[in-house]
Amino acid sequence: MALCNLVTGGAGFLGSHLVDRLMEAGEEVICLDNYFTGRKQNIAQWIGHSRFELIRHDVTEPIRLEVDRIWHLACPASPVHYQFNPIKTAKTSFLGTYNMLGLARRVGARLLLASTSEVYGDPEVHPQPESYHGSVSTTGIRSCYDEGKRIAETLCFDYRRMHDTEVRVARIFNTYGPRMLADDGRVVSNFIVQALQGRPLTLYGDGHQSRSFCYVDDLIEGVIRLMDADATGPVNLGNPAECSIRVLAELVRDLIQADLPLTSQPSPEDDPLQRQPAIDLARQTLAWEPKVSLAEGLGPTIDYFRAALDS
């Protein structure tokens, strides 16, 4: 018998890829989205399907549904979007998670929280294991998201301790792939769009800050394995292959238009210098690690943006 899955943020970048996997596996899916960063075209192929339901709803408001599993992905994840209305971002992480945990408790569903590597802040430990408690500014411009996800994790574990609610917590590191938004301000989409438009690629700072980029298919596989596992988490999900922003820019440029210049702008406030997941726990408990290299994953991502810009 198919499980009924609620995916909050299901029309977004990660959510829509998860919806695809669940539908292809024969599950029932309820997609919940308020379309702040989600797009209906991301899940258009499933509209009208007998196992798929689409509801326009904001998770800061309660909702009553009968479901078996809750995949809680609803929250803007790029600085451009989560800083647009930082109070709403904090409300989404706190009230949205509170409402979904309340639903999970009422119907006995298992809930997976899409947390983030941003809970580590500008880390003083490198790479970052799950045991590291982070170096986060509570007053900076990123704190609406960083601290929002930290309180979301707190709620999950308090519901687990107080009400025996089944929870899974995934700390997701930088993820890229088709269906990213062209204007989301994330470095992969920024570089690809600039290169496709023949513009200089903009580095913020000297470009020596590093990130670890995980292709979306790998990330979704990890999320599914965590939901199915006995491990509560938190579990880091990301690609441990560290890459400087300058190297990423040069790689994107070489794949699209090799003669484009690189330009520099000042670094944004509170921008972390390093970010790399320690994924020993995911390897041990989920038998998971990324398979797609950055060079391999950029190809279909570039193809997606080329088609999106052409249309």
Automatic annotation (TrEMBL):
**The NAD-dependent epimerase/dehydratase domain, residue ranges:** 6-237
Any one of the GO CC terms: cytoplasm
Q: Which domain of life is it from?
A: Bacteria
Q: Which cofactors is this protein said to need?
A: NAD(+)
What are the protein's GO molecular function terms? NAD+ binding; UDP-glucuronate decarboxylase activity
Q: Where in the cell is it found?
A: Cytoplasm
* GO BP annotation list: D-xylose metabolic process; UDP-D-xylose biosynthetic process
Q: Which UniProt keywords apply?
A: Cytoplasm, Decarboxylase, Lyase, NAD
Where is it mostly found?
cytoplasm
Per its record, how is this protein called by name? SDR family oxidoreductase
Gene source species: Aphanocapsa feldmannii 277cV
